[in-house]
Amino acid sequence: MPAARFIGDLNAEASLATLSGVGPALREKLAARGLATLQDLWLHLPRSYEDRTTLTAIRDLRPGEPAQVEGQVEAVERGFRYRPLLRVAISDASRATLVLRFFHFRAQQVAQFAVGARVRVFGTPRPGQQGLEIVHPSYRILAAGEHPLGEALDPVYPAIEGVGPASLRKLIGQALQRLPDETTLELLPQAWLRQQGLPSLRAAILLLHAPPPDADVAALQNGLHPAQRRLALEELLAHQLGLRRQRLALQAEGARALRGDERLVETLLAQLPFQLTGAQRRVYAQVRDDLRQPRPMLRLVQGDVGSGKTVVAAMAALLALADGRQAALMAPTELLAEQHCNNLRAWLEPLGIRVCWLAGKVTGKARKQALAEVASGAAQLIVGTHALMQEGVEFHDLALAIVDEQHRFGVHQRLALRDKGRGGVPHQLVMTATPIPRTLAMSAYADLDVSAIDELPPGRTPVTTVALSDQRRAELIERIRIACAEGRQAYWVCTLIDDSDEIQAQAAQTTFEALQDALPALRIGLVHGRQKATEKQATMLAFKGGELDLLVATTVIEVGVDVPNASLMVIENAERLGLAQLHQLRGRVGRGRAASSCVLLYQSPLGQIARQRLDTLRQTNDGFAIAEKDLQLRGPGELLGTRQTGLAGFRIADLVRDADLLPQVHALADTLLRDAPELADRIVDRWIGGAARYAAA
Ligand code: ADP
Ligand code: MG
Known about the structure:
By secondary structure, this protein is of the alpha/beta class. It is 42% helix and 18% strand. It has 27 helices and 22 strands.
């Protein structure tokens, strides 16, 4: 490798302390925004641009369009109408007048605006009381003489607390001085870039910090300029390579292939009261084929709520057990884990299989015994929560780890499992009911193979969804009274943005009491996250057994709760929840034969986006369509959760805007991993901060 490469990289990694004027205090402020190296500043791109390369005649100004004008001060008015006010009228050779309006100003500023002074102003004009005006424009008083116009568009950087825009610009200017030459900086193949018509990295960075006057400003503002696309592409590529590399590393460790003996599976199927759907059959076959390979399976199974993922998981587990090995199933909450445990016991114990329950609340002697069974291999299928992955749980011979409802789990939890296998990494099956749009799945889960159970079992009645203003609460309560009198059961879900169990529990408690007052004839229960597991369990069982008419709950019931007779659901504050979550909640009804409905209760007035979201839910029951819409409306960060994927941490790329780049990204990732793995590593290092971040995750 040429030595110049190293110099380039050293520059990129150089601390900001090497810039002049950067002391510890400033460094700290920059670090608070994640800016630590020269490269961080190169990639701290403007959020918009101001065109000061031309002057516009005041007469030609248009409301809403930013422009630069130059004129003479005609009149100055200082007043106090409710609050301090400074109005400065300027005019130019076009004989039109523009008003500059200030609400905050110093005495010194007032003095500057002497009548007759020449002033150059940049801002966005709006219609005012007398013609156009600009509120708080940026401006400069011009002394006599020549004042050349800007030669490039002015970058407007995302603000950094405690660092003024002028200092930030200077710093970035300094950092750019130390941008290595073209070949040193470039990591993507030159020929490929030429073929794609994309600029070099150096050219792209320089252009974005100081676009020439003839640059396509609209494209720049929308993030669609070739220079921006070039950077987004490299960033997406780095992310893709990082995940793929991680997957390769895991697969290199190898796993013991299962024989794929299907006798137990067949016995289970013969006992089930239903036939598998085509989709279940197809996905099971994919899983079985994966398990027959001598490298760890890494498969994500997506399936809408109620699509029947659990039985597929059970079938996969049976393939492990048939070889005399163990399988584990983990769920994000105890409630869900317990329900899985009950279902699996009902299916598998008749086959003579020992299902072991292991969760955080299993303590003392019971825990000791469970752990001993897991370690000796007496326990064949182990069901529980995260606790399964904690220290101290030794498996005898774990062949397959199944993780349900992946969106609650982080990548690191997935990785932690690798240590649990004996004689190789366990195979991993991840199941999620939050379908991920295709584009997102390709980026977020490049380390997993993805299958979809895209068909619901027959006989389900679609849920009718309506949106209702909170002002009609009384009417709704009356409807519930009537429905329950007819023998139907209902959920009332209290949601809050607040993640704290405590506050959610309080809200649910309040609603519970209010509903008890309003509906004295109904048997009402309450579940929330602050209750003891036994208490929650008892209430759920009572509801399931028909001893309660109405269940007031927090979103603890979001996943997995299965009460077929419940056919009505009310979701409070629906406008504040994500579509995926609402869809998930709604999946709790419509599980039986009765026609079901879901009422999305919202606080009016409803914003436009919120209305669109509720409309989407009213119009479709298809989890995949909903996920696509959610992605469009809210972006990937919200959808996936920031911590898990780092996707929301993209500096430049935007998965919605740049989705069309993904095919190129994937093709290039293939080529690089095959032909230039060392280059691939350097691309990952540049954007993701090295292997460290993944390894430590
Ligand atoms: P999810 O995919 O949401 O986890 P479950 O696995 O909990 O769905 O299945 C929902 C319900 O549908 C369960 O009661 C399950 O026994 C039942 N079920 C699963 N597969 C089928 C099928 N092919 N036909 C009928 N019912 C099924
Ligand atoms: Mg499930």
